[in-house]
Specification:
Elements lengths: L1 H9 L30 H6 L2 H14 L5 H14 L3 E8 L15 E9 L2 E9 L4
Antiparallel strand pairs: 1-2, 2-3
Helix pairs in contact: 3-4
């Protein structure tokens, strides 16, 4: 949504973009995705660990933590509890998606990807701002 929002502004599109929250499984918060059907029962049970890590990072932010290392470590620590195979974790500016060292006045997008067998999953949360 950050890329599309920027395109709307930069290209002077005469439209209102409506951003809605990610749809999640109400039981465990895993983002609903067509890829989830490729997860076996054990993988499906472990997959929400990444989202739990994102939520922990958001809690740290709410308590005053702004630094990249601490926020990313929170995601890694939670993901490690379920042995997720992390590809990347990103803390980026919502304005241009460049990596940042600390969450500033614009907020940040905390995102990442991980593998469960041959399935690649992605997730993200917004920190310090809303659309």
């Amino acid at each position: 949504c950050c890329v599309l929002r920027r395109m709307v502004v930069d290209l002077h599109f005469d439209l209102d973009m409506v951003v809605v929250p990610t749809v999640r499984d109400p039981a465990d918060g895993l983002a609903l995705s067509s890829r989830n059907v490729y997860l076996d029962r054990e993988q499906r049970a472990r997959a929400p660990a990444f989202y739990r890590g994102l939520c922990r990072a958001r809690e740290l932010f709410a308590a005053g933590t702004r630094g990249r290392d601490a926020l990313i470590a929170a995601v890694r620590e939670e993901a490690a509890k379920d042995a997720l195979d992390i590809e990347y974790i990103s803390l980026a500016s919502p304005d241009d998606l460049r990596e940042i060292d600390a969450v500033g006045s614009l907020g940040a997008v905390l995102s990442g990807a991980w593998r469960m067998g041959s399935t690649r999953l992605i997730d993200n949360i917004l920190i310090g701002f809303e659309f």
